[in-house]
Design a protein that fits this description.
The structure holds two protein chains of two kinds.
Chain A (H helix, E strand, L loop, with lengths): L2 H26 L2 H4 L4 E8 L10 E4 L2 E12 L4 E9 L9 E6 L6 E6 L12 E2 L4 E2 L4 H18 L2
Parallel strand pairs in A: 1-7, 2-6, 5-8
Antiparallel strand pairs in A: 1-4, 2-3, 3-4, 5-6
Chain B lengths: L3 H33 L1 H6 L1 H11 L4 H25 L6 H39 L2 H7 L4 H40 L3 H11 L2 H29 L4 H30 L4
Helix pairs in contact in B: 3-7, 4-5, 4-7, 5-7, 5-8, 5-9, 5-10, 7-9, 9-10
Classes of the chains: A alpha/beta, B mainly alpha.
Chain lengths: ~160, ~260
């Protein structure tokens, strides 16, 4: 076969291969939405993180605004300290509350942000006030609480 | 206690062990020489392009077709299982993650070993048998630089591209079955996939895997060809060994790489 024909086919092959990689990155992966864009760190302390894992989503009004980067246990306060990377495009007021929520009944856990009324935004690196965080709901606790209430109702009705 | 038969057997074990270690040492020296002599083949790019045509372009058809079919099978099987839990919308996640993380690099590596690797071994083995390699040496042309290095780089370049094509085709096959044929919701298929597949964690790791497999397969194929006994029988044995060894190498390396990449989260 002539050399120029081989060159053409190899060129087409390279284009197809690199094109497939680009499709994987943009269409299959999340490169398009939140990949290499600028982020800033925020921290929040929770008494119980449930099943939250690093790389879990941080959502506000259902929109992914960042990801959990690390979870460590604070041995002085006995709480879990969660560090999040938030997309630099989004600013949240200082009294933003963070709660650990579950997507669906058995879905993955994520952090939900709810904006407050303050004017000043949270500076990069700050910690969300302990009073404004809500820990994960533990199903066992919920059930036992419900049972207790039922038992209490039963005894008062006598 | 030591009769003649058992002594011969023990001697055989020792001989095979020493032989295996010797061959491993020779193979290491071979890859080091290949890497040292790769400079000239990059200066004469048309050599690499010619090999890219044989290893890459001619493997495209089998990669495209098998990628599409693997993706379609994943679409069917995944749907059957996910339906039981009422989470058909996660079909895209299942198809794309299994392709990008595992099946893409591994299956295209196995196909690459049997399609391109065996051809490389047979070609170089036959060149050795017909004394073309010795003839090159007589003309002061280094056969490692002229024959081996371009093939090595062509294999290393084309393997990740083939794996990416395989994964992309597979995702499309899963889409065809899941969305077009069965009727899973189009939006949730793609959006759940995009939420679950991470560029760094999944796609880049898949590419790293396929590069490692490419290096392993081409190394094994070229070495087996270069080391083949210069007889018809020797070349056929070397071709068989290429396919067996490189398939085992792919599976073993895949286990090690997966253990490193996905151990924690």
């Amino acid at each position: 076969m002539e050399r120029s024909t081989i060159d053409l086919w190899v060129g087409l092959f390279m284009v197809a291969g690199l094109g497939a990689l680009t499709i994987l990155a943009l269409k299959v992966g999340n490169m398009g939405s939140l990949g290499s864009s600028d982020t800033y760190a925020l921290t929040a302390e929770f008494t119980n993180i449930g099943g939250l894992k690093p790389r879990a989503a941080v959502k506000s009004s259902g929109v992914v605004v960042g990801r959990v980067s690390s979870i460590v246990f604070d041995n002085d306060k006995f709480v879990a300290r969660v560090t999040m990377n938030i997309d630099a495009r989004y600013k949240f007021p200082q009294d933003t509350s963070a709660s650990i929520l579950t997507a669906g009944l058995l879905g993955e856990q994520y952090i939900g942000f709810e904006g407050g009324a303050e004017d000043k935004p949270l500076a990069p690196g700050t910690t969300i006030k302990p009073g404004l965080t809500q820990s994960a709901v533990v199903l066992e606790k919920l059930i036992s609480q419900f049972m207790m209430n039922k038992a209490a109702e039963g005894s008062s009705a006598k | 206690m030591f009769n003649r038969g058992s002594i011969i057997n023990i001697r055989g074990v020792g001989h095979h062990t020493v032989d295996a270690v010797l061959r491993l040492g020779y193979a290491t020296r071979f890859i080091a020489l290949t890497l040292l002599n790769s400079g000239p083949s990059f200066r004469r790019l048309h050599l690499i392009i010619r090999e890219l045509y044989f290893t890459g372009v001619l493997s495209m058809i089998i990669i495209l077709v098998s990628g599409l079919f693997v993706g379609m099978v994943l679409g069917f099987q995944g749907y059957q299982t996910l339906k039981t839990y009422g989470s058909e919308s996660a079909l895209g996640v299942l198809v794309s993650l299994s392709l990008v993380r595992e099946l893409g690099p591994v299956v295209s590596g196995l196909l690459f070993a049997s399609r391109a690797g065996s051809a490389m071994t047979a070609e170089i083995g036959l060149m050795k048998t017909t004394e073309q390699l010795s003839a090159m040496e007589m003309m002061a042309v280094d056969p490692i630089a002229r024959v081996v290095a371009p093939r090595f780089w062509a294999g290393v370049i084309s393997m990740p591209l083939l794996a990416a094509v395989f994964s992309a085709m597979g995702v499309y096959g899963g889409y065809l079955i899941g969305v077009v044929l069965i009727g899973v919701d189009d939006g949730s298929f793609w959006s759940q996939m995009q939420a679950a597949v991470d560029f760094r964690e999944d796609i880049v790791n898949g590419v790293i895997k396929s590069v490692v497999f490419g290096i392993a397969v081409t190394w094994i194929a070229l070495f087996e060809g270069y080391d083949a006994p210069p007889t018809a029988e020797g070349v056929s044995g070397a071709t068989t060994r290429t396919v067996v060894t490189s398939s085992l190498a792919i599976l073993g390396l895949d286990f090690i790489l997966t253990a490193f990449m996905f151990q924690g989260a």
